[in-house]
Amino acid sequence: MEKIRQNTLHGEVANRIRDMIDQGMLTPGSRVPELQLCEQFGVSRTPLREALKVLAFEGVVELLPNRGARVAKLTKATLKNTFEVMQNLEALAGELAGERISEAELANIEALHYQMLSYYKSGNMKEYLLVNQQIHEAIVVASQNDVLIDVYKNLNHRVRRVRFTAELSSDYWSKAVGEHEAMVEALRARDGVALGEILRRHLRNKMEVSALDDMAE
Protein backbone atom coordinates (compact mmCIF):
# COMPACT_ATOMS: atom_id res chain seq x y z
CA MET A 1 0.00 0.00 0.00
CA GLU A 2 1.43 3.40 -0.96
CA LYS A 3 2.55 5.94 1.61
CA ILE A 4 0.15 8.82 2.37
CA ARG A 5 1.18 12.29 1.22
CA GLN A 6 1.65 14.70 4.10
CA ASN A 7 -0.85 17.26 2.79
CA THR A 8 -3.83 14.88 3.14
CA LEU A 9 -3.09 13.26 6.48
CA HIS A 10 -5.80 12.55 9.06
CA GLY A 11 -8.73 12.74 6.62
CA GLU A 12 -6.98 10.33 4.26
CA VAL A 13 -5.99 8.08 7.17
CA ALA A 14 -9.66 7.95 8.22
CA ASN A 15 -10.64 7.02 4.66
CA ARG A 16 -8.06 4.22 4.57
CA ILE A 17 -9.24 2.77 7.87
CA ARG A 18 -12.89 2.92 6.76
CA ASP A 19 -11.95 1.00 3.61
CA MET A 20 -10.07 -1.61 5.64
CA ILE A 21 -13.15 -2.10 7.82
CA ASP A 22 -15.49 -2.30 4.82
CA GLN A 23 -13.22 -4.87 3.16
CA GLY A 24 -13.02 -7.02 6.29
CA MET A 25 -9.33 -6.34 6.92
CA LEU A 26 -10.32 -4.92 10.32
CA THR A 27 -13.21 -6.87 11.80
CA PRO A 28 -15.90 -5.75 14.28
CA GLY A 29 -14.61 -5.94 17.84
CA SER A 30 -10.94 -6.13 16.81
CA ARG A 31 -8.32 -3.68 18.06
CA VAL A 32 -7.02 -1.04 15.67
CA PRO A 33 -3.27 -1.78 15.33
CA GLU A 34 -1.97 1.77 15.62
CA LEU A 35 1.77 1.13 15.30
CA GLN A 36 1.25 -1.19 12.35
CA LEU A 37 -0.96 1.34 10.56
CA CYS A 38 1.47 4.19 11.21
CA GLU A 39 4.19 2.17 9.51
CA GLN A 40 1.90 1.01 6.72
CA PHE A 41 0.61 4.52 5.93
CA GLY A 42 3.90 6.31 6.59
CA VAL A 43 2.45 8.70 9.18
CA SER A 44 3.06 9.55 12.84
CA ARG A 45 0.74 8.69 15.74
CA THR A 46 -0.77 12.20 15.79
CA PRO A 47 -2.70 12.09 12.47
CA LEU A 48 -3.67 8.48 13.13
CA ARG A 49 -5.20 9.37 16.47
CA GLU A 50 -6.96 12.38 14.95
CA ALA A 51 -8.40 10.02 12.34
CA LEU A 52 -9.59 7.66 15.07
CA LYS A 53 -11.38 10.55 16.79
CA VAL A 54 -13.22 11.27 13.53
CA LEU A 55 -14.16 7.60 13.15
CA ALA A 56 -15.29 7.42 16.78
CA PHE A 57 -17.58 10.41 16.21
CA GLU A 58 -19.07 8.57 13.24
CA GLY A 59 -19.59 5.45 15.34
CA VAL A 60 -17.21 3.39 13.21
CA VAL A 61 -14.68 2.75 16.01
CA GLU A 62 -14.76 2.94 19.79
CA LEU A 63 -12.02 4.71 21.76
CA LEU A 64 -10.80 2.76 24.77
CA PRO A 65 -9.35 4.81 27.68
CA ASN A 66 -5.56 4.39 27.57
CA ARG A 67 -5.98 1.29 25.39
CA GLY A 68 -6.30 2.62 21.85
CA ALA A 69 -9.37 1.85 19.75
CA ARG A 70 -11.38 -1.05 18.42
CA VAL A 71 -13.74 -1.48 15.49
CA ALA A 72 -17.33 -0.93 16.62
CA LYS A 73 -19.75 -3.84 16.42
CA LEU A 74 -23.01 -3.25 14.60
CA THR A 75 -25.92 -4.59 16.61
CA LYS A 76 -29.22 -5.62 15.07
CA ALA A 77 -30.99 -2.74 16.82
CA THR A 78 -28.43 -0.14 15.70
CA LEU A 79 -28.57 -1.29 12.09
CA LYS A 80 -32.37 -1.35 12.04
CA ASN A 81 -32.65 2.09 13.62
CA THR A 82 -30.04 3.58 11.30
CA PHE A 83 -31.71 2.20 8.19
CA GLU A 84 -35.05 3.61 9.33
CA VAL A 85 -33.53 7.10 9.57
CA MET A 86 -31.66 6.74 6.29
CA GLN A 87 -34.82 5.70 4.45
CA ASN A 88 -36.28 9.09 5.24
CA LEU A 89 -33.05 10.99 4.64
CA GLU A 90 -32.64 9.50 1.17
CA ALA A 91 -36.33 10.02 0.43
CA LEU A 92 -35.98 13.72 1.31
CA ALA A 93 -32.76 13.93 -0.71
CA GLY A 94 -34.60 12.44 -3.68
CA GLU A 95 -37.45 14.94 -3.39
CA LEU A 96 -34.99 17.85 -3.30
CA ALA A 97 -32.77 16.43 -6.03
CA GLY A 98 -35.79 16.16 -8.33
CA GLU A 99 -36.21 19.92 -8.00
CA ARG A 100 -32.58 21.02 -7.88
CA ILE A 101 -30.37 18.59 -9.81
CA SER A 102 -28.18 20.21 -12.46
CA GLU A 103 -27.71 18.85 -15.97
CA ALA A 104 -24.11 17.98 -15.13
CA GLU A 105 -25.16 16.08 -12.00
CA LEU A 106 -27.84 14.20 -13.95
CA ALA A 107 -25.34 13.28 -16.66
CA ASN A 108 -22.92 11.98 -14.04
CA ILE A 109 -25.58 9.82 -12.38
CA GLU A 110 -26.66 8.45 -15.76
CA ALA A 111 -23.05 7.57 -16.59
CA LEU A 112 -22.64 5.83 -13.22
CA HIS A 113 -25.91 3.98 -13.78
CA TYR A 114 -24.77 2.57 -17.13
CA GLN A 115 -21.45 1.61 -15.60
CA MET A 116 -23.30 -0.16 -12.79
CA LEU A 117 -25.46 -2.02 -15.33
CA SER A 118 -22.35 -3.29 -17.11
CA TYR A 119 -21.07 -4.75 -13.84
CA TYR A 120 -24.47 -6.31 -13.16
CA LYS A 121 -24.54 -7.96 -16.59
CA SER A 122 -21.01 -9.32 -16.13
CA GLY A 123 -21.77 -10.53 -12.60
CA ASN A 124 -19.09 -8.33 -11.02
CA MET A 125 -20.79 -7.72 -7.66
CA LYS A 126 -17.83 -5.99 -5.99
CA GLU A 127 -17.59 -3.24 -8.63
CA TYR A 128 -21.38 -3.08 -8.91
CA LEU A 129 -21.68 -2.28 -5.21
CA LEU A 130 -18.95 0.37 -5.37
CA VAL A 131 -20.70 2.21 -8.21
CA ASN A 132 -24.08 1.69 -6.53
CA GLN A 133 -22.71 3.53 -3.50
CA GLN A 134 -21.51 6.41 -5.70
CA ILE A 135 -24.99 6.77 -7.23
CA HIS A 136 -26.71 7.04 -3.86
CA GLU A 137 -24.14 9.56 -2.66
CA ALA A 138 -24.50 11.60 -5.88
CA ILE A 139 -28.28 11.80 -5.45
CA VAL A 140 -27.82 13.06 -1.88
CA VAL A 141 -25.31 15.68 -3.06
CA ALA A 142 -27.77 16.75 -5.77
CA SER A 143 -30.21 17.71 -3.00
CA GLN A 144 -27.96 20.77 -2.49
CA ASN A 145 -28.78 20.71 1.22
CA ASP A 146 -25.54 20.85 3.20
CA VAL A 147 -27.11 19.83 6.52
CA LEU A 148 -28.77 16.77 4.98
CA ILE A 149 -25.52 15.82 3.24
CA ASP A 150 -23.50 16.00 6.46
CA VAL A 151 -26.00 13.96 8.48
CA TYR A 152 -26.25 11.38 5.69
CA LYS A 153 -22.47 10.98 5.45
CA ASN A 154 -22.19 10.39 9.17
CA LEU A 155 -24.90 7.72 9.26
CA ASN A 156 -23.76 6.11 6.03
CA HIS A 157 -20.28 5.53 7.43
CA ARG A 158 -21.83 3.47 10.24
CA VAL A 159 -23.65 1.00 7.99
CA ARG A 160 -21.59 1.12 4.80
CA ARG A 161 -19.84 -2.15 5.62
CA VAL A 162 -23.24 -3.90 5.54
CA ARG A 163 -25.09 -1.81 3.00
CA PHE A 164 -22.52 -1.86 0.20
CA THR A 165 -20.63 -5.11 0.80
CA ALA A 166 -23.30 -7.76 1.45
CA GLU A 167 -23.78 -10.62 -1.00
CA LEU A 168 -26.99 -10.28 -3.02
CA SER A 169 -29.27 -13.08 -4.17
CA SER A 170 -29.99 -13.11 -7.90
CA ASP A 171 -33.65 -12.21 -7.26
CA TYR A 172 -32.82 -9.28 -4.99
CA TRP A 173 -30.04 -8.10 -7.31
CA SER A 174 -32.42 -8.02 -10.27
CA LYS A 175 -35.04 -6.18 -8.21
CA ALA A 176 -32.47 -3.61 -7.01
CA VAL A 177 -31.35 -2.92 -10.59
CA GLY A 178 -34.97 -2.33 -11.59
CA GLU A 179 -35.34 0.16 -8.75
CA HIS A 180 -32.22 1.98 -9.93
CA GLU A 181 -33.68 2.17 -13.43
CA ALA A 182 -36.77 3.79 -11.90
CA MET A 183 -34.59 6.26 -9.97
CA VAL A 184 -32.90 7.47 -13.14
CA GLU A 185 -36.24 7.82 -14.91
CA ALA A 186 -37.62 9.89 -12.03
CA LEU A 187 -34.55 12.12 -12.09
CA ARG A 188 -34.88 12.66 -15.83
CA ALA A 189 -38.53 13.64 -15.30
CA ARG A 190 -37.54 15.90 -12.38
CA ASP A 191 -40.13 13.98 -10.34
CA GLY A 192 -38.84 14.34 -6.80
CA VAL A 193 -41.93 12.83 -5.18
CA ALA A 194 -41.61 9.63 -7.19
CA LEU A 195 -37.85 9.48 -6.59
CA GLY A 196 -38.34 9.90 -2.85
CA GLU A 197 -40.76 6.99 -2.71
CA ILE A 198 -38.48 4.78 -4.78
CA LEU A 199 -35.52 5.51 -2.50
CA ARG A 200 -37.55 4.85 0.65
CA ARG A 201 -38.71 1.49 -0.71
CA HIS A 202 -35.21 0.67 -1.96
CA LEU A 203 -33.67 1.21 1.49
CA ARG A 204 -36.47 -0.74 3.18
CA ASN A 205 -35.79 -3.69 0.87
CA LYS A 206 -32.06 -3.44 1.56
CA MET A 207 -32.64 -3.60 5.30
CA GLU A 208 -34.74 -6.72 4.87
CA VAL A 209 -31.95 -8.59 3.08
CA SER A 210 -29.16 -7.45 5.41
CA ALA A 211 -27.63 -10.06 7.71
CA LEU A 212 -29.69 -9.07 10.76
CA ASP A 213 -29.99 -12.63 12.04
CA ASP A 214 -26.20 -12.92 12.31
CA MET A 215 -25.90 -9.87 14.58
CA ALA A 216 -26.11 -9.46 18.31
CA GLU A 217 -29.10 -7.69 19.77
Automatic annotation (TrEMBL):
Name the domain of life this protein comes from: Bacteria
The protein's matches in InterPro entries, at most eight in alphabetical order, are given as: GntR_C (IPR011711), TF_FadR/GntR_C (IPR008920), Tscrpt_reg_HTH_GntR (IPR000524), WH-like_DNA-bd_sf (IPR036388), WH_DNA-bd_sf (IPR036390)
Which residues span the membrane?
Answer: none
Q: What is this protein called?
A: GntR family transcriptional regulator
Say which species the protein is native to.
Answer: Billgrantia montanilacus
Domain annotation HTH gntR-type: ranges: 7-74
Family matches, as Gene3D superfamilies: GntR ligand-binding domain-like (1.20.120.530), Winged helix-like DNA-binding domain superfamily/Winged helix DNA-binding domain (1.10.10.10)
**GO molecular function: any one?**
DNA binding
Q: Which UniProt keywords apply?
A: DNA-binding, Transcription, Transcription regulation
